[in-house]
Amino acid sequence: MMKMLLSILLIAGLTSAYAQVLPTDTVPAIINYTTENGVTKFTSELRPLRQIAGAPAPFYTYFWEFGDGSFSFEKDPLHIYKDNKPAFARLFATNNYDDGKRPPTKPKPIIKPTLKPGTARPLMAANATEPSLFKMGGNIELKSNCMPKPGDDMMVVFGYRNKAENGQQNLNGTLAILFNDKEFTNNNFILAETRVYNEEKKTDLKPLLNTAYLPIKKANPPVYYASLNEIHFKADDKVLLSEKAKTFKSSETWRFENLQQNEERFVFMHFKTTPEMIKDTNAVVRITAVFIPDNPLVEKEFFNLELQIVASHDPNKMVLRKTRMNYRLIGNNRELTYKIRFQNTGKGPAKKVDVAVNIAEVFDQGTIKITKIKPEVVSCDSAYTNQSCIRTIKGTDSVHFVFSNIYLPGMQQKGVSDADSTMGFVEYKIKFKEKPKKLPIRSGAAIVFDKNEPIYTNRAVGRFKMGLSPGLILGYGFPFETDNSNYLNNKNVVIGASLAPYAPHRHYWQVELYLSSFKENTALISSSGPGKDTIVNRIPYRILNKDYTKFKKVTTINVVPAQLRYNINKYIGAGAGALVSLDLHHKTTDVLDYTLSTQNANGTTATSDLKVIANQLKKNFAEARVSFFADIQLGLVRVGPSIGFRYIFDPKTNNNRMATYATWKF
User: Fold this and answer.
1) CA torsion 464→466→470→472, rounded to 10°?
2) What pLDDT does 547 receive?
3) Cα angle for residues 103, 252, 277 (degrees, 5° grid)
4) What is residue 127's three-state secondary structure?
5) Residue ranges per domain, the chain?
6) Close Cβ partners of 224 (under 8 Å, ≥ 6 residues apart)
7) 543: enclosing H helix or E strand
8) Which residue has the higher pLDDT, 365 or 415?
9) Does pTM top 0.85 for this prediction?
10) Which residues of 336-351 are buried (b: 16+ CB within 10 A; e: fewer)?
């Protein structure tokens, strides 16, 4: 009884402790606001952060949607509502370096302030919080509030405008968003909700697919957040929208009208990232925006937002552009592109940032080439004294990219409201020394701001796609037939095929298929000497000899459904598995062969032969037999050619034999 009471108390205590921790993840962000002189100030209440062990201090980043087509990324933004229409404010807070879930979003109805007659609006204070989305100079731009995390939410702002350079007083046209790359099996996103504030209407993209031509990007390196995604193109470099759209599985399209010159509009898209989204947290997914004005004098545009899938929200990340590579196409001249992004989350500016990267032994450090950096600085080799610059320092198995004499503001620094200004990155290309082994390639980075403790990034892992490699096998001495009669177990030549992963490094599975047609076999079952007289066609004969012979013809299909192989090195491999044999066609004929003698009318003796088919049996798909084998291969065992020696054992008949074969994979 006492034990039961203690167990109940223990369970109740654990349940209570569990309830004290986990329910905070389900508490929505609480939105508070006050109004003064027509200006609304927003603040929030969020659950306490829980620091990830070993990570820097956790913090929130903010995305506010004010419910009238405006937004902000500030912690406590100010906003002026321009009309009295109903509005609902939303806060999407992202928990960085926190081991819990993102606080849920709950819309807050806003009672809009009204100004007293003659009261001036404090425009400077309000405008200071209005974000500038269009940083690349185009008519459209995308920005997300965070990197996608499986099972979490993500907000994307789709901004579009009518630049003065367009020379148009107003524009009509079509907007489209393309998502869920066909490169991945599962859908990465569900577009849960779209909120528009300028009477944009849903429409169909199909009529435009084969008529709209988009610019082709030129010299545009991979970019992993929207604020640095340039579009470079020539007027005659075009691609059909249908070609762009066919790389995605999902799309959404809207019709817009009366976009005035210099007017900016925003569409808010609430994406749910699916739990089934690709588990590789180094992978990069795309969301593409398309801008198609009706006026042919205004250029059509598209904008790529490339996002890294993350397991937790961490502003310091290392990314490999292509995490899944085709091993057939890999050579020592193949370049890989890495990007390390960092963010100063401190209370003051950083003057020096040291990005240290460990380099896998398969790479040639002499081929490292920086392709893009932020802040944009010159090389220290050509810099004057105290000029902002970057220096590349190569070690035995590492390289340091050191930004010196820079000014990188801190996230918590007073007066800093633009999160992008606190971010930086270095992107570089590197080549292989030679064709690497088919093994994962791992790299990581440590980032040091001034003299602070290093911040360690994730490990960017490059993996090779399995790839399928069909093979040809020419064998002698196998497989067994299903009949265990000794005279039928003749050695024969077979041609077969195999299927396995392409150029596996160590262990792998392989299947094989053989089609064997054994030559017709003859077996003398019995033979006897002179026998009784007989009469054939009323003629008396003496039986001199009688032979009982069996004839057999077999066509067999043989399958190796499961075989585990292991490449000891590039020249020696071993394997073991099971072989299933099944007769497709089985024909057996029993023949009696008589040697007869008779006496002619003139007294001479004559002999003759008489064959009689005593029995004939035809069977299709006879009973299957399972044999087991082990073998060893010598040669270029990963691809071929190679020669193998296989020992086969049939446990049903205790029959065993050695066989040999040659194989070549493609």
Assistant:
1) 70
2) 67
3) 50
4) helix
5) 23-115+127-277, 317-463, 468-665
6) 284, 306, 307, 308, 319, 339, 341, 425
7) strand 539-567
8) 365
9) no
10) bbbbbbbbbbbeebbe
Rg (CA), the chain: 39
Say how far apart CA 423 and CA 355 lie, in whole Å: 13
Locate tokens 């071993």: which residue? Answer: 574
- Measured CA to CA, the distance from residue 38 to residue 99 in angstroms comes to 39
Q: Thinking of the domain 317-463, which architecture would CATH place it in?
A: Sandwich (2.60)
pLDDT higher for 17 or 468? Answer: 468
Kindly report, residue by residue over 44-57, the tens digit of the pLDDT: 999 998 887 777 78
Q: Which two tokens stand for residue 83?
A: 């009309």
- Tokens, residue 212: 């709209």
Q: Amino acid identity of 177?
A: I
Residue 464 backbone dihedrals phi, psi, to 5 degrees:
-95, 135
Whole-number Å distance between alpha carbons of 298 and 313: 39
Which residue in 472, 476, 474, 484 sits closest to 659, CA to CA? Answer: 476
Q: What percent of the chain has pLDDT over 90?
A: 31
Query: What's the token pair of residue 160?
Result: 């579009």
Contact, 282 vs 458, CB < 8 A?
yes
Q: pLDDT band at residue 358, thresholds of 50, 70 and 90?
A: very high
Is the bond into 561 cis (omega within 30 degrees of 0)?
A: no
- Enter the DSSP assignment of 22: G
Task: Compute the mean pLDDT over every residue in the chain, rounded to the nearest whole number.
Answer: 80
304 within 8 A of 288, measured Cβ to Cβ: yes
**Looking at residue 658, what is its pLDDT?**
85
Place of tokens 């177990």: 489
- CA–CA dist 3, 299 (Å, integer): 78
CA distance 414 to 409: 9
Q: Which of 380, 452, 450 is nearest to 408 (CA)?
A: 450
The residues with which 446 forms a beta bridge, in sequence order, are 356, 456
Q: Determine which helix (DSSP H) or strand (DSSP E) holds 206, and give its type and residue range.
A: helix 206-209
Interior CA angle at 547 toward 542 and 553, to 5°?
Answer: 145
What amino acid is encoded at 281 in this protein? T
Judge whether residue 550 has pLDDT over 70: yes
- Euclidean distance between CA atoms 65 and 71, whole angstroms: 5
pLDDT score recorded for residue 621: 67
More confident residue, 531 or 324: 324
pLDDT in tens, 365-381: 989 999 999 999 999 98
- Options 1.20.1250.20, 3.60.15.10, 3.20.20.140, 2.60.40.10; CATH of 23-115+127-277: 2.60.40.10
**What is residue 175's predicted lDDT score, i.e. its pLDDT?**
94
pLDDT at 488: 40
Strands 468-476 and 493-501: antiparallel
Q: How confident is the model at residue 131 (pLDDT cuts 50, 70, 90)?
A: low
Beta bridge partner(s), residue 611:
593
3-state secondary structure of 83: coil
Predicted confidence (pLDDT) per residue in 570-611, tens digit: 899 999 999 888 776 667 777 666 666 666 656 566 666 667
Comparing CA positions, the residue from 450, 449, 425 lying closest to residue 375 is: 425
Contacts of 301 (CB under 8 A, 6+ apart): 138, 139, 140, 214, 215, 231, 290, 291
Amino acid at 84: N
Strand partners, 155: 270
* Angle, CA 145 vertex, CA 143 and CA 148 arms, to 5°: 100
Helix (H) or strand (E) segment spanning residue 155: strand 153-161
The owner of tokens 């079952």 is 525
Contact 405, 386 (CB under 8 A): yes
Which amino acid type is present at position 130? Answer: E
